[in-house]
Amino acid sequence: MKKRLIAVLVCLTMVAGLVVGCGGKEETSKEETTGTETEAKTEAEAGVQQLQADGSAAKDDLHFAIILPSLGHEFWKNCLTLAEQTAETEGIKLTTYNCEDSSDKCAEYIETACNSGIDGLIFVAYFDMGPKCLATAKTANIPVIIIDAYIPDIAPGEEGYDNYLAFIGPSDEESGYQMACALFDGMEANDKGEKIVGVVNGTAGSTVAVDRRAGFERAYKEYTDKGEKITIAGEVTGDFVRDKSQEVTESLLQGNPDIKGIWAANGGTGTGVLAAVSSLGYKPGEDIKIVCMDLNEENVNSVKKGDMLFDVGGHWLQGAFAVTMMCDYLNGFDLPSDRNVKLTPIPVFQDDVDDFLSVFVDFLPPYDAHEYSRTFNKDAAPEPPALSYK
Question: Taking 90 as the threshold, does the pLDDT of residue 5 lie above it?
Answer without folding.
Answer: no
